[in-house]
Design goal:
The complex is a heterodimer of chains A (about 400) and B (about 1150). By secondary structure, chain A is α+β, with helices and mostly antiparallel strands. Chain A has one domain. Chain A is built from twelve helices and ten strands. In chain A, strand 4 and strand 5 form a beta hairpin. Chain B is α+β, with helices and mostly antiparallel strands and about 1150 residues long. Among the domains of chain B are: about 160 residues, Calcium-transporting ATPase, cytoplasmic transduction domain A, CATH 2.70.150; about 200 residues, Calcium-transporting ATPase, cytoplasmic domain N. Chain B has a nine-stranded mixed beta sheet with strand order 14-33-32-31-15-27-30-29-28, with helices on both faces. The longest helix of chain B is centred in the last third of the chain and has 38 residues. The termini of chain B are far apart. The chains are: A alpha+beta (about 400), B alpha+beta (about 1150). Chain B: Its cofactor is Mg(2+). Chain B: One of its GO terms (molecular function) is magnesium ion binding. Chain B: This is Phospholipid-transporting ATPase. Chain B: Keywords: ATP-binding, Cell membrane, Coiled coil, Endoplasmic reticulum, Endosome, Lipid transport, Magnesium, Membrane, Metal-binding, Nucleotide-binding, Phosphoprotein, Translocase, Transmembrane, Transmembrane helix, Transport.
Chain lengths: ~400, ~1150
């Protein structure tokens, strides 16, 4: 593993000149790899001040005022300190196989953007405005690739928005289907018919279509995007259910309801496959899990690695075909498409690495300082305490 | 008189009229029955039907409960972010717990009431005995009480089974005095000792309206016999049998009920005990106000920012999130107001709802540790400490002034006869190792200087002049061993027993009182009989008592004994000098001295006295004054025989205790009724005054007796003031307890001088005497106040209590005369001593011995204070870091009042997840072991002046809470910059965000407590790890089910999903570590610093909370060496 360190590090540095920032963070982390001995020294340094306060029976100079209570106090501290170092070191290794990420803003606010023409699209514009953005991947995506859409300045966590849903309707409750909760107001009924699914969240469901093509010698090959398996299993199978009744005909089951105002078509026409249609449509389910912050990403499609020989996405030219339906310009929002691979720790995130490295360094530094202090003053204490 | 009474004057406020047996006096009498209350005792507060409304009303009068009620109502009415359940449930919980506690207490009272009210009593009706329930007794009923029964109401004693019309009563349950008191039946009714006879009695009783003084009663009975003039007899306390007292050694008695139910003296005494509040509560309220301000400002900031943010139309109402019609139509002002209220509701958890109930539980449960303390258990009386109120536990750790009684508190109050002097000749018991009783032939020989007749007169005086009773020993076989020893002496005053025993040593034995005849056995083993004519009882104002007896030869003798100051003015002046020398010397040695005098009365004189006494006793008004006047006249022109010296031994360890209290920075004042010399020597003995203490005296002696008193007093005051205050260099002025550094001063003042200072006789431009005096007092290490009346004791306490900075005062005493000061002080402590239980009943805490005060204050008080202070600070801290992320979240959700946490978490946080660890901590924590706390009194100073609840520690906790809140929120915020936290690329929503923050929060605050805990018991482990486990378990459970009663299934599998992500685990661990890091660092630094300072290193839990002791106390080094000697293992 360590042998591969410099090599991988170099490559990652070379590769990530692209649109995604934050490489510095990872580069910093990479430093922790060769810094493993440092971690070790760190640990003993960390133990230093603790021992000096009288933990270890092994330390002769700690014999002066040890005390049960102090030991109880410091052991957890020591362990947590160690955990920080170990964590930092481990993390450093993980980074080396860290996820790669590519992201592209297709809002179209700049006049040069191909999507600029669609900027002021409205919900009911037919036919849908489409635009194509070409881009180059400078390195290949080795493992499975996850395709996200990202929105900015979109307050999915607004209180009025968050509560504007009826979970029992979504759970297939027939009475709620025809009589949605009051929380759905003002998206509860339309023309005296109950809306299914009701509420602001459902009404504002993301409806851009994104398609990915690989450009190989001017021929466009579509890349297979898998639309299932993007929602939580429990949501798909337990929390969201289509209404029950005679037969499986969704059209009949949703009889007596109307589509959400902004939707072009009703809920039972979201998809052609029956196990991905109606309330259990995964795009819908993903949208219904409200994001924590106004800038968020949601999983859109999966790109599976076909075979072991070829990377999922080779470096090269690609083109993104966008069915631009979702207006964000009115509230100063942005739209992005993100391609990312995922490690066992999840997507790319510099935060944890930086934080662990920083905390670890501080601990090490303090450990050294305290050790020095202890050695400087500890001896005096020892002699002073001997008469006792 | 009679006609006046007939005219219906009986309704005047002062008296009530009771018709004995409800038999009208005469047919012609237009007697209208007065209404009296029935004999039901109601100590309970609630009944079954009014419990709910009344209790709720009482509870919502508390400001905190009311606040939460308002919040709850706002939630119900206004559309708020959190459901009313979130604040309703905790409130309901708190209210229910309190209601259950109060209901249980009331149920106990009901049960006790019923026991009393439903007990059977016999009432004589129509010459027959009728069994009735106690509560049915009416005023005027004739009640029969048998031996060992308790009196069901206040009765006038009519007749008893003994011919002489006496009965013995013990009032142990009333005032704790276990000796038998003799009560006397009305003289004219003593013969009516059958049902028939008593039923034939026609009489009315006129007496005062009920009043609480147990020892006062004034009344008159008028007895009508056919064809005879009505006879009127006076009634006094000796005729009144009090409810609650028990009949002893008498087969049965008849009495007529005069006061019933809630009007009995016992019931009146139990009413209206004042509530004491502790200083900690004041701090809590101050902090509450701060947090309320934080809350208000948060809500204001959020509301303002919301409208600033919303001024942008696409922020206010983007297309995806339209308002309802109703929302659009509301007026803007109203909308702002509801927004403000909504923010208030969202942040209201910052004021901890459960803190009050936790504090109350902590106090209630914590007080058991005092009563369970085995070290405070006294083998002699087979009792431990008693806690009467649990509200003041922590106040025990804040005491600055200790006011102690001397007799029975510092001393044993078990008297021993040491010596006497007869006509100036000293008689010291030189054969004390042999029990003097067997030495029948003149043990006085070694000092036999006085005339034999004088000696005998003196000893007879000792044998006769007292109110001692003989109690027969219970076992019959006592006859075999020591036939003479089959009895014990009982008396309300231990001095008298010591004197009688002393006389016994010298050959005169008191054999008891039978039918008004006192029997004594003299040195020649002959029995002498004296008829007891009158007892002029002891009272603290006269400070003397007398008896008048008739010898068998018909001589009338008056014996009087009392304090020298009250005897000397009443004897022949030429006799005083020789005795005075002895008395003064004895007093210097710390003995209690009494002088004995006698006079012979002629029959004529006696008749006059007898008449006067009877008249005075008969008087309905001003009886006290009249009696006092007769006593004054009678006890005059006597002849001094001699004086006695009785030693009151110091209680074990009282000196050590006083020293420890001094070292702990407390000032000890002794308030006693004793003589100055006696008190002074006791103070030296118990090291209140050290040899190097400079004494300042403000007594009758130094001030002088002349009319220039005030001038002299003025001079003295000015001189002392100059010495103590003006001459002390000013630079030490800022430092509290500066006296510890310089010369120690002691002040002695006596009662008369004190009253001169407090109530100057003339308007003498001396109104600031009190101030000067107070300043002098506060500068003295020790103050001795002697010759104090009970009320003066209370006055002193109040004076100190009301000085600047209102120091916490503690009074400790054992007798009835200490009750007033016990009630006055912040903390009142009673000693379960020999002078009855009145003090311990009125106290907040009662201990068996003075030495127990040391542990009570230094260990228990300190610990309770640290515990409750930590509890309070921790509560505010944990709620601040609970709510701060919620506040910060508003900046990221468009100020829409979106809650960060799920409603269940909001509700359960304070009730379930974090309540028990702090409760266990606040009950069990011993950050310093009890042994060390008791051994090193200096530690007490570290918590003085409410050190842990000052603004500094409060700010520290607040900053800690704010820091952690920031870490929680921004940690999660940066974590969520990630595209996905799961290894399958799926994304988390806002509820996962909140759950991560909440998980970090719960773990951090619990582990923070674990860091602070120094004393781990299995209970701490159980609740700390148990709470965390419960949180995890609950989260799984709460997220594992689709709850049919919930409108939204927000938490469905959120927690489980969160835990499948490795990043989340790493982030949670990291955030917990970062949050606790400053705390850990501070502990390490503190340790290093302390070691470098080479002080005895105490590991203290809350770093900045402890006050620093300014550059050492004089005795620091002694204390430390002391400590190392005692605890070598701990230091090495």
């Amino acid at each position: 593993m360590r042998n591969r360190d410099p090599e991988t590090r170099g490559s990652s540095k070379a590769l990530w000149r692209g649109p995604c920032r934050g490489t510095e963070g990872w580069a910093g982390l990479g430093w922790a790899g060769p810094g493993r001995p440092l971690g070790k020294g760190c640990r003993s340094g960390g133990a230093g001040p603790v021992r000096s306060s009288g933990v270890g029976a092994a330390c002769p100079w700690a014999a002066a005022p040890p005390c049960e209570t102090r030991r109880r106090l410091f052991l957890p501290a020591l362990r947590r300190g160690e955990a920080a170092y170990v964590g930092a070191v481990v993390n450093g290794h993980l980074v080396l196989t860290a996820p790669v990420q590519f992201n592209i803003d297709y809002t179209g606010t700049e006049p040069s953007s191909p999507c600029n023409k669609c900027l002021n699209v409205s919900w009911d514009s037919t036919p849908p405005c489409t635009c194509i953005i070409n881009f180059t991947l400078e390195h290949s995506f080795e493992s499975n690739v996850f395709m996200y859409y990202g929105l900015s300045n979109f307050y999915q966590n607004h209180r009025r928005y968050v509560k504007s849903r009826d979970d029992s309707q979504l759970n297939g409750d027939n009475s709620s289907l025809l009589n949605p909760s009051k929380e759905c107001e003002p998206y509860r009924t339309n023309e005296d018919k109950p809306i299914a699914p009701c509420g602001a969240i459902a009404n504002s469901m993301f409806n851009d279509t994104l398609e990915l093509y690989r450009i190989d010698n001017d021929t466009k090959t579509p890349i297979t995007l898998i639309k299932k398996g993007i929602a939580w299993w429990t949501d798909k199978n337990v929390k969201f259910r289509n209404p029950t009744g005679d037969g499986n005909n969704l059209t009949a089951l949703f009889q007596g309801t109307t589509k959400p105002v902004n939707w072009p078509k009703p809920v039972y026409m979201l998809d052609t496959e029956p196990d991905n249609n109606g309330f259990i449509n995964e795009d819908f389910i993903v949208w219904m899990r409200t994001a924590a912050l106004p800038t968020f990403r949601k999983l859109y499609r999966l790109i599976e690695r076909k075979n072991n020989l070829q990377p999922t996405l080779q470096a090269g030219k690609y083109s993104l075909h966008i069915g631009y339906n979702y207006p964000v310009h009115s509230f100063d929002g942005r739209k992005r498409m993100i391609l990312s691979t995922i490690s066992w720790m999840g997507g790319k995130n510099p935060f944890l690495g930086i934080a662990y490295i920083t905390v670890g360094s501080i601990c090490f530094f303090l450990g050294v300082v305290l050790l020095i202090i202890h050695h400087k003053y500890g001896n005096r204490n020892t002699s002073a305490d001997i008469p006792n | 008189m009679w006609s006046v009474w007939c005219a219906g004057e009986e309704k005047r406020v002062g008296t009530r009229t009771v018709v004995v047996g409800h038999r009208p006096v005469s047919e012609t009498d237009a007697y209208v029955a007065q209404k009296f209350c029935d004999n039901r005792i109601v100590s309970s507060k609630y009944t079954l039907w009014n419990f709910l409304p009344k209790n709720l009303f009482e509870q919502f009068r508390r400001i905190a409960n009311f606040y939460f009620l308002i919040i709850f109502l706002v939630q119900v009415i206004v559309d708020t972010p959190t459901s009313p359940v979130t604040s309703g449930l905790p409130l309901f919980f708190v209210i229910t717990v309190t209601a259950i506690k109060q209901g249980y207490e009331d149920w106990l009272r009901h049960r006790a009431d019923n026991e009393v009210n439903k007990s059977n009593v016999s009432i004589v009706e129509n010459a027959k005995q009728v069994q009735k329930e106690s509560e049915k007794i009416k005023v005027g009923d004739i009640v029969e009480v048998k031996a060992d029964e308790t009196f069901p109401c206040d009765l006038i004693f009519l007749a008893s089974s003994s011919v002489d019309g006496t009965c013995y009563v013990t009032t142990a349950s009333l005032d704790g005095e276990s000796n038998f008191k003799t009560h006397y039946a009305v003289r004219d009714t003593t013969v009516l000792c059958t049902d028939e006879a008593i039923d034939a009695l026609t009489a009315t009783i006129e007496c005062e309206q009920p009043q609480p003084d147990l020892y006062k009663f004034v009344g008159r009975i008028t007895i009508y016999r056919s064809n005879q003039e009505p006879v009127a007899r006076s009634l006094g306390p000796e005729n009144l049998l009090l409810k609650g007292a028990t009949l002893k050694n008498t087969k049965r008695i008849y009495g007529v009920a005069v006061y019933t139910g809630m009007e009995t003296k016992m019931a009146l005494n139990y009413q209206g005990k004042s509530q004491k509040r502790s200083a900690v509560e004041k701090s809590i309220n101050a902090f509450l106000i701060v947090y309320l301000c934080i809350l208000l400002s948060k809500a204001t900031v959020c509301t303002t920012l919301k409208y600033v943010w919303q001024s942008n139309p696409f922020n206010d109402e983007p297309w995806y999130n339209e308002k309802t019609k109703k929302e659009r139509e509301t007026f803007k002002v109203l909308r702002m107001f509801t927004d403000f209220l909504s923010f208030m509701v969202l942040f209201n958890f910052i004021i901890p709802v459960s803190m009050y109930v936790t504090v109350e539980m902590q106090k209630f449960l914590g007080s058991f540790f005092i009563s369970w303390d085995k070290e405070m258990y006294d083998e002699e009386i087979k009792e431990g400490a008693l806690v009467n109120t649990s509200d003041l536990n922590e106040e025990l750790g804040q005491v600055e002034y200790v006011f102690t009684d001397k007799t029975g508190t510092l001393t044993e109050n078990s008297m021993e006869f040491i010596e006497c002097c007869i006509d100036g000749h000293k008689y010291k018991d030189c054969i004390s190792e042999v029990d003097g009783f067997s030495q029948t032939d003149g043990p006085l020989k070694c000092y036999g200087k006085a005339e034999k007749s004088r000696e005998e007169l003196f000893l007879r005086a000792l044998c006769l002049c007292h109110t001692v009773q003989i109690k027969e020993a219970d076992q019959v076989d006592g006859l075999i061993g020591h036939p003479e020893r089959k009895y014990t002496y009982i008396s309300s005053s231990p001095d008298e027993i010591a004197l009688v025993k002393g006389a016994e040593k010298y050959g005169f034995t008191f054999l008891g009182l039978q039918n008004d005849f006192m029997k004594i056995r003299n040195q020649k083993n002959e029995t002498e009989m004296y008829q007891l004519l009158h007892v002029l009882n002891f009272d603290p104002v006269r400070r003397r008592m007398s008896v008048i007896v008739r010898t068998t030869t018909g001589k009338l003798l008056l014996f009087c004994k009392g304090a020298d100051s009250s005897i000397f003015p009443r004897v022949q002046q030429e006799e005083i000098q020789q005795t005075k020398v002895h008395v003064d010397r004895n007093a210097m040695d710390g003995y209690r001295t009494l002088c004995v005098a006698f006079k012979e009365l002629t029959q004529k004189e006696y008749d006059k006295i007898d008449k006067q006494l009877s008249e005075a006793k008969m008087a309905l008004q001003d009886r006290e004054e009249k009696m006092a006047k007769v006593f004054e006249d009678t006890e005059a022109d006597m002849h001094l025989i001699g004086a006695t010296a009785v030693e009151d031994r110091l209680q074990e360890q009282s000196a050590e205790t006083i020293e420890a209290l001094h070292a702990a920075g407390m000032k000890v004042w002794v308030l006693t009724g004793d003589k100055m010399e006696t008190a002074k020597s006791t103070c030296y003995a118990c090291r209140l005054f050290q040899t190097n203490t400079e004494l300042l005296e403000l007594t009758a002696k130094t001030v002088g007796e002349s009319e220039r008193k005030e001038d002299r007093l003025h001079e003295l005051l000015m001189e002392y003031h100059k010495k103590l205050i003006q001459d002390v260099p000013k630079n030490r002025g800022g430092l509290k307890r500066s006296w510890t550094l310089s010369q120690e001063y002691g002040l002695i003042i006596d009662g008369s001088t004190l009253s001169l200072i407090l109530n100057p006789s003339q308007d003498f431009s001396s109104s600031n005497y009190k101030n000067i005096f107070l300043q002098i007092c506060l500068k003295c290490t020790a103050v001795l106040c002697c010759r104090m009346a009970p009320l003066q004791k209370a006055q002193i306490v109040r004076m100190v209590k009301n000085t600047k900075g209102s120091p916490i005062t503690l009074s400790i005493g054992d007798g009835a005369n200490d009750v007033s000061m016990i009630l006055e002080a912040h903390v009142g402590i009673g000693i379960k001593g020999k002078e009855g239980r009145q003090a311990s009943r009125n106290s907040d805490y009662a201990v068996p011995k003075f030495k127990h005060l040391r542990k009570l204050l230094l260990a228990h008080g300190h610990l309770y204070y640290v515990r409750i202070a930590h509890l309070v600070q921790y509560f505010f801290y944990k709620n601040l870091c609970f709510i701060l992320p919620q506040f910060l979240y508003q900046f990221f959700c468009g100020f829409s009042q979106q809650p960060l946490y799920d409603a269940a978490y909001l509700t359960m946080y304070n009730i379930c997840f974090t309540s028990l660890p702090i409760l266990a901590y606040s009950l069990l924590e011993q950050h310093i072991t009890i042994d060390r706390l008791t051994a090193d009194p200096q530690l007490y100073m570290k918590v003085s002046d409410n050190a842990m609840l000052q603004w500094r520690p409060f700010l520290y906790w607040t900053f800690l809470g704010a820091f952690e809140g920031l870490v929680f929120f921004f940690g999660a915020y940066f974590l969520f910059q990630n595209s996905s936290l799961e290894d399958n690329g799926k994304v988390f929503g806002n509820w996962t965000f909140g759950t991560i923050v909440f998980t970090v929060l719960v773990f951090t605050v619990t582990l923070k407590l674990a860091l602070d805990t120094r004393f781990w018991t299995w209970m701490n482990h159980f609740v700390i790890w148990g709470s965390l486990a419960f949180y995890v378990f609950f989260s799984f459970f709460w997220g594992g089910v689709i709850w049919p009663f919930l409108k939204q299934q927000r938490m469905y599998f959120v927690f489980a999903h969160m835990l499948t992500s490795v990043s989340t685990w790493l982030a949670i661990i990291l955030l917990i570590f970062i949050s606790l890091f400053p705390e850990i660092l501070l502990i390490v630094l503190k340790n290093i610093k302390e070691k470098n300072h080479q002080t005895a290193s105490f590991d203290l839990p809350i770093l900045v909370s402890y006050k620093r002791i300014e550059n050492g106390y004089v005795k620091t080094e002694d204390a430390v060496t002391n400590l190392t000697e005692r605890y070598p293992l701990r230091i090495l």
